[in-house]
Amino acid sequence: MPTQQDDNGLLAVDIGGTSVKYGYWNQQLENSGSFKTPKTWAEMHDKLLSLPSQITQPIRGVAISLPGSVDIKKGQISGTTAVPYLNGFAIRKELSDDFQLPVTIQNDANCAGLAETWIGNAKDVSSVALLIIGTGIGGSIIQDGQLLTGHDHFMGEFGYSILNGQNKTLSDLGSPVQMAKKYTRISESLAPVDAPQIFEKAKQGDKLAQNCINDMVHWLSLEVYNLITSFNPDRLLIGGGISIRDDFLEMIRNRVGTLLKQKGATVTTDIDRCRFCNASNLIGAVAQFLSEYPTLLAIK
């Protein structure tokens, strides 16, 4: 379990496809902020290096959450990612040299898992699977405190699961963003309609909204069922903005419970939401840093 002494802090950064979040960690997250994801590495590089000047406290290291397949030993990412220019070079070494500080990197969904097992809704169990639902869908698996990443650092990319006969993936079928685009298209709405609006329309009796939500929940429930029966974790946590909805979580629980009974799968995995939402990747990046440098922050 990571530990940290007082009066020592980290710069935590979460790089995403649309925005970059950052904050200062010293027992808790402080001085949080964000900026729009730059279009080039040169712009990103300059933005990142300017962050310490915006944080007045001493910084002893930099903990970064990234999209893509992250190789923490090589210090780089590869494969499909929301920020393509981050791929294929030693990003950790470059930033460590420029910051003149230790730098760690980890996949964003893995960071969410680390945050939950450290101080979140999985801190009391031995095994947990996370399903993070957003524009795309990812996740992570942690067993006995160890993050499982796979041979190609691709474990947890559940959005690539193919769930129907048309080769559509879970990210195609289960993303709230894709669900909203579907509703907007079919309804011929003049303006884009987002997922929260569709849930509200469904409550008001809009049949198309109800059908779109039901379809999304159907595919997500199949994936949750597959994860539970494949990995049999103590707990499965659902993250992403949609997870804060009690009605959504209850629909998933009910449908997965029905599937388990229908198929005779006698498992008792808890299904819950993540404790952390927007801050999960930042907190998990800190957990990754503390696991790699367990004594650094104790040095005065």
Strand content: 15-25%
CATH architecture of the largest domain: 2-Layer Sandwich
Average predicted local confidence, pLDDT: 92
Runs in which pLDDT lies below 50 for 5 or more consecutive residues are: none
Number of helices: 9
Q: What is the tally of beta strands?
A: 12
**Largest sheet report:** 5 strands, mixed
In CATH, the homologous superfamily of the largest domain goes by the name ATPase, nucleotide binding domain
What topology, given as strand order, has the largest sheet? 3-2-1-4-7
Query: Rg to the nearest angstrom?
Result: 20 Å
Helix content: 25-40%
How far apart are the termini? 21 Å
Structural class by SSE content? alpha/beta
The structural domain count equals 2
Q: Write the CATH fold name of the largest domain.
A: Nucleotidyltransferase, domain 5
The level 1 CATH classification of the largest domain is Alpha Beta
Q: Any idea what the shape is?
A: globular
Family: Belongs to the ROK (NagC/XylR) family.
Protein name: Transcriptional regulator/sugar kinase NagC
Keywords: Kinase, Transferase
InterPro entries: ATPase_NBD, ROK
